[in-house]
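Q: Structure tokens for this one, please.
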Amino acid sequence: MKCDCDYILPTKDGWEHHYDNCISKWHSKAQYPKNEDGSIRLTNKNLMKMHQDFIYHLGLDTATYDLKAMFGDVKFVCMGGTKYRMKEFAKHMAKVLNIKDFEAKNLSKHSHRYAMYKVGPVISINHGIGISSMTILLQEILKVLYYAKVKNPIIFRIGTSGGLKIPPGSIVISSWGLNGTLEKIYDLPVLGEIRKLPSVFDKRLIQELMSMVTEGDGFNTYSGGTMAADDFYRGQARLDGPFCDYTEDDKLAFLRKLSALGVRNIEMEATAFSAMTREAGVRAADVCVTLLDRLNGDQVTPDKELLLKFQERPMILVGRYIAKYYENNLLLIK
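A: Here is the predicted structure, written as tokens:
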């Protein structure tokens, strides 16, 4: 017997289906719109009235392209900042999933903005830096999943960050996002008013990811809060930007306050990423490696080779998670 929700939980004996409180019940709450077959049900009624939808920043549309044929078998979307990183992740997943003769073709090359690769049931795509760039990509990917009638997708963000009181090279799986005014909220101005959207990640997905950690990884993995700043310099209390109107003591006091609140790392996307995936009813996780401990400095100083090794660590953990789905026959490999 197979649970139709594809939902699994880590247990002492491995991973098993979760029947009593499956993902379909979890999504039955009002804030998680979902069709009975697990496909996304976007609440924008205007989409139903459109003869053709131009998904501009991906260079796709619903008339020229058969999105269901192209992406209907997708289960996972993995997003990250740079084109290079996501191309490397696509290659990594081809090895993990034993997909022979994989060729990294950019499916959104006509847009000249993002680079998107498909590896079996995995989309690997870059989103740029910061909330504005990331949310453009995320919302258009959600529309692609909607038109393709993808069932129960999971979206990962794999990225880099600054850590707080943890060693450089550690992985942080975000429990929640904190904005610049220290609220677990994504503030979105709409029609001249601020919409406050909760910024909390799926606890069970965090548990599932944490169950993938092994003693032989060679790095530490934590779960905890993530501050998503709107700026790389003053917004993250750095002293090395072109403007600085606070002291080093002010900076350290702020970072210690963040740490006391449970923040493990600082990046620039978590609040919006968690809020929008939650609103769409899609399970999501933010998995970032730390490049430095911000209490010990502001500048990213490790050499390029070490930084590249650090950036591989979220790929390893997320790739291991995806491979586990295959091992448990939760996906059909065609």
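A few notes: Residues 1-30, 330-334 have pLDDT under 50 and may be disordered. The radius of gyration is 20 Å.
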